[in-house]
Amino acid sequence: MKQFNNKTIYNNGQVMILTVVILGGVIISTASLISYLVINNLKQSTDMSLSARAVFASDTGREWELWKALKDGTLPLNGSDGTCPRFTNGAEFTAGVSYYDAVSTSTLKIVSAGKINKDIRVWGWIWGVSSSTPVGYPVPPTYIQTTCK
Amino acid sequence: MKQFNNKTIHNKGFSIIELIVAISLFVIVISISVSIFLRTLRTQKTALLLIEANNNLSLIIEEMSREIRESTDFKSTDFNGPKDIFRSNIEFTDTMTGEFIKYDFINGAIFKTVNGVQQQLTSNAITITDFKIKLIQPANFPSRVLVSITASPNSDVLTNYTDNIQTTVSSRMISI
Lengths: 149, 176
Prior knowledge:
The structure holds two protein chains of two kinds. Chain A is an alpha+beta fold.
């Protein structure tokens, strides 16, 4: 207790309340921190779902380019044949194909990017064309891309 | 204060008002903390459900894709209309293993049958709400198969959540 202006002031209670407030602050801070970390975890889980959609959209683009290449050997088709894969889950892909290099016409380079919202996943693929596959693909002057969604 | 063995002992207690204020504050703090903690547990459970649903879908669609790439003779037994409609099952022959494989959508789950032996692929923690197959089979060209699977976790926490994964795979088995 203190003496102040001839009055006795009991401050034990204030100390106790202060202690409780500090303890409470620590407890709430800890709980909030844990909550923040878990919410981050949830956000990552949601992102993972979108990521999987983007990965499989990318895979679809890769398959699409390969299928066109094997279909009739007239690279590059531009997706205007009406069979471009469509998605109902919001995903899309942009895929491109060319020869792996300017010299060899037996190896294709396929790159496909699956996208949903801001999530983008990319597959790159080198495909060796066997002797049983039709030959004579025209060499694309630039990297021709197709977008399907 | 008291004198005891020449030591001064301060035994002044707290007033009832101080105790009530302190206990009230503490109860409020603890209530908020418990509320945050319970919400955190619920969120964690939600995250695990999302992960499980996504893992199930990814694994199934990956397994199907791998088998479709190396298979031939694609057909569907629920074909009752135009050739390009969506179907709920698919069967084919795996050229690498020689196995006859069939995927079915039965009562909210996906079943795989290999040479007549059927097993459930999806976990009981999720319900498959939609399973679509579309066969694209132009003459003399490799078959393409569109696979679309939609699932929702079996939980009161996530009642309206569904996850959908789609892919289109082409067979590597070319008969030209």
